[in-house]
Every structure is written in structure tokens, then in C-alpha cells.
């Protein structure tokens, strides 16, 4: 969500949905938190926010798979991909696609390298897509509900400082995700 406030509330539903979807392509967890706070404030409906989040995150996940598949075909594109450092075979990715996708949805920083690797090593697309969509439904809903709870408390109790509290909450989610991703990189 780019703006939360009266200007957001007066926008048409399609524009709110489009803003949320674009936000998921930039930073999906931040888009989820801001959408939840906007829903809590009554500026966007909960069903619209959730549907736009689900759609944007799922399309982004499928796009990462497609990016990996394109990198397998075109060597020029391959140099832009972040693939796992250890050599993994196509058979391993095919056999473990459900586990890879489900776990990486909940581990910040893991989706980009693992989803593109699934595409690169031609893991079964249907299993990938179904698992990605189901994991997205669980993760996004949990984060959305948590953000609604925290955002509702900030909106109700922090007066003029609520936006500073909201910024701190969003920053905390981003920083924790980056720290976990960095720890994963160091451990590989």
C-alpha cells in the first residue's frame, strides 16, 4: 500500500487491489502488513486486501519459477539468477519440490533462490504451483491477521505516534527477514 489515509479510502476498489498487488512484487511482507493496517482502519475491505495479496504473492512465486526455467534455456539470463551454491540435481528438486516450496515460504530470503532453482531444474510445475499457492494462503493469512492485531492496537492506543509504531513494526519484519536470510547465506 502506498498511502494509508483518507485518500486511500476514497479510491476505487480496483485501484486499491492493483496497489496491493504491485506492492507484493516489491516487498510482499510489507505490503501484507500495510494492507492489514489499512483494512483495520476501514480503508480497504478485508476480502479485497486478502484476495489482492494472495493473487500478487502467487503470481510472484510462479514468476520466480518461470525465471528459473528461462535461465535454464538462456545462458545469458542464468548469470542473473541466484541458485543454491551446492550442486543439486534435477531429480532431487523433482522429488522434493513440495517440501522445498512449503519450507521456503516460511523462511525469509529462501524463496528467490529456491523457487528459481525449482524452475531451473524443471521441478514438476503443477506440484510447485499448488504447494506455492497453499503455502501462500497460510503464510499471508497469518501475517495479515497478526498485522491487523498489532495495527489495530497502534491505531487505537498510540495517537499521533501510531505511524512511528507502524513504521517500527514494518521495519522489524524487514530486518528480521534480512537477518535470517543473511544467516542462511553464511551457513551455506
UniProtKB/TrEMBL annotation:
Segments crossing the lipid bilayer: 51-76, 125-148, 160-181
Annotated ranges, domain VTT: 42-144
Keywords: Cell membrane, Membrane, Transmembrane, Transmembrane helix
Main subcellular location of this protein, as a coarse class: membrane
Family matches, as Pfam families: VTT_dom
Membrane topology reported for the UniProt record: Multi-pass membrane protein
Localization in the cell: Cell membrane
UniProt-recorded name of the protein: VTT domain-containing protein
Species per Swiss-Prot/TrEMBL record: Gluconobacter albidus
Amino acid at each position: 500500500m502506498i498511502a494509508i489515509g483518507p485518500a486511500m479510502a476514497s479510491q476505487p476498489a480496483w485501484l486499491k487491489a492493483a496497489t496491493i498487488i504491485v506492492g507484493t512484487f516489491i516487498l510482499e511482507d510489507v505490503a501484507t502488513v500495510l494492507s492489514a493496517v489499512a483494512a483495520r482502519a476501514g480503508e480497504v475491505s478485508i476480502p479485497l486486501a486478502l484476495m489482492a495479496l494472495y493473487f500478487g504473492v502467487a503470481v510472484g512465486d510462479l514468476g520466480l519459477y518461470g525465471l528459473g526455467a528461462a535461465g535454464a534455456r538462456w545462458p545469458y539470463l542464468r548469470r542473473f539468477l541466484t541458485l543454491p551454491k551446492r550442486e543439486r540435481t534435477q531429480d532431487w528438486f523433482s522429488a522434493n519440490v513440495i517440501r522445498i516450496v512449503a519450507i521456503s515460504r516460511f523462511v525469509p530470503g529462501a524463496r528467490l533462490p529456491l523457487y528459481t532453482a525449482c524452475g531451473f531444474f524443471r521441478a514438476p510445475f503443477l506440484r510447485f504451483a499448488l504447494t506455492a499457492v497453499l503455502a501462500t494462503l497460510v503464510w499471508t493469512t497469518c501475517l495479515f491477521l497478526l498485522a491487523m492485531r498489532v495495527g489495530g492496537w497502534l491505531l487505537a492506543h498510540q495517537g499521533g505516534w501510531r505511524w512511528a509504531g507502524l513504521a517500527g513494526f514494518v521495519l522489524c519484519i524487514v530486518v528480521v527477514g534480512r537477518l535470517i536470510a543473511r544467516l542462511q547465506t553464511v551457513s551455506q
